[in-house]
Amino acid sequence: xxxxxxxxxxxxxxxxxxxxxxxxxxxxxxxxxxxxxxxxxxxxxxxxxxxxxxxxxxxxxxxxxxxxxxx
Length: 71
What we know:
The protein is 52% helix and 8% strand. The protein is mainly α. α2 (19-26) packs across α3.
């Protein structure tokens, strides 16, 4: 991967949240976030072998959950 930031995708990777930040945002524990990610319930991806979250995707997911659009 290039170190240059030139597209929205690169910016998203730079702004990616770790498990702790995602848990704070969703109001739950780190353990729950790991479980939800493993189950595919919450949008996540691996970067450098570490679990990461797009703030935009989590915000959308949280809105869907609050509207009863959950899986």
